Amino acid sequence: MFKFIVKRLLLSVVIFFFAMFIIYTLIYCLPSGYVENTARELSSATAKSGGKTYKEWVDQLNKEYGMDKNVVEGYFSWLWKAVQGKFGTSWKWNMPCTEKFSKVIWNSFFLGLVALFFEVIIAIPLGVIAARKQYSVTDYTVTCISLIGISLPTFFVASLLKLVFVVRLGWFDISGMHSRNFIAANATWWSSTLDIAKHFVLPALTLIFVSIGGLMRYTRTNMLEVLNADYIRTARAKGLPERKVIGRHAFRNTLIPIVTILGGSLPGLFSGALITETLFALDGIGYASYYSMTGGDIPFTMFYLSFMSILTLLGNLIADILYAVVDPRVRVN
Q1: Contact 217/131 with Cβ under 8 angstroms?
Q2: pTM
Q3: Cβ distance 149 to 211 under 8 Å?
Q4: Which domains does the chain have, with CATH numbers?
């Protein structure tokens, strides 16, 4: 297993190298003059104080981010700085990319953690129950709910929740991290935490609803396949209680494909929910990356895409390791 992990880590480094080269090339070839636009804004802002001219800003920005070189030289220049943790200063947020990241990442993490927790404890048991009671009212109900969750887009679910709980009932604020009457100077740590938690309810419900459908359907399908296997019929013929047949034999074999999904979901705890955070104006990594991308913030965009690439590779590695944990038959020679 140790050799397998080392090989996968080395392979992940190679994949990351080429993935980031493709991303850098795409950003390098963008037709929009983000550097020119930023230089124009900076020169206008500093014109009265005798600052740099537009041409000087263009030259400085191109040199700082390797845009004055060809794509290969520019990529290696950026990669060398990235390995040292130097991703530059965000044009959008006017602070180092790593500093902005550290300010917003934990909001995304706690939101993703809550959503993943409820997704697992709701979707997997319902999928198992639907498989055990195939073609029953319970099965049809679970299937209907899962199909609705799969079909509805995130922005529609978020808008529907806002209409019901914000406009109609008035229980929550429509967006933001704090209430309209919240005063930070007079608030205690506990009251501030509760106020923030209140604003996480609707985004968490949105993520849970759009996520449970796929996992629920996936669990049901794989559980049905296992329940129809010969060894399950043998276990029942030997007189084992149904609880042991389902829990000890069927469900454990169902976990193998489920681990693939959950392994890919773990990086999502840190990658942020871009659409959901933007719709509810939550100051998370997804929200920051959205406005950085739309605002032409190349340094933060490259940092975020690098971070996402590492998380994806890490999730695949975790899924492979969990295979051997879940099923003793899975061994790497």
Answers
A1: no
A2: 0.77
A3: yes
A4: 2-83 (no CATH), 103-326 (1.10.3720.10)
